[in-house]
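Hi there,

I know you've been waiting on this one. I reran it after we fixed the sequence typo, so this is the corrected version. Both the input and the resulting structure follow.
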Amino acid sequence: MIGFLLRKNFYDLWDNLFRVALLNIGFIASAGVFIALAYAFSTAPVLSMASLAVGALWCGVYLAASALALRKISDYGIFGFAEFFAALKEAWPAGLVFGAAVVVGSLLSAVVFPFYFALGNLLGLFAAALVFWTMAVAVLALQYYLPIRARLDTDIRKIVKKCFIVFFDNPLFSLFLAVNNAIAFAISIMLAFLLPGPAGILLFLDEALRLRLLKYDYLEAHPDADRRKIPWEELIVSDRETTGTRSLKSFIFPWKD
């Protein structure tokens, strides 16, 4: 299933480079405005921090709307940018919560770790380790937050609950997603965040969740099935046929196929 996920994501990203890049440009512009404001208010720390916090909230809303739009690509469709702007109205509550979580997590990292390390004893080291692993689990689980909002639920509490349910049921898969996203982030830096960028990472996460949900559909239909032996090849047959395979020439010269 992992191999198919990577292949489908590459195909979808390639076929929608323009849309993904435009979403990334919008995100870069949004973040840039608030970073510039924070720099302009550098002599007033409160205003500078407030600018970054508001920027994080807005970027959360922007990413939530992007997740709704990118879902259509995962489902073998396309989206128009009028639909993206409509998604902003639909996704803003979940986006604000996501942005707030980023702000709170950043503040905790900036305050809690220095405090515990400054204690200079075993208790401080243990507390810092406990906070670190708690935040690591939260980050791995909240990878699913925006895709779950796009696909499954609008209730914030249920979204968060489902994030942790999916994570604890699929810890290795969640770790794989995190590693893949870290690699995508590194590539994004080299490409000025145009590709794959935040939108490309969101597309990958949505496609990962979409395929992972097939497992739960199967288990619901077969309650006595062994959860450790999911027949993935059977579950993704339809997706394999729809996605197909391509040659290198078809990527460069698609009109020649």
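Quick highlight: The mean pLDDT is 93.

Best,
R. S.
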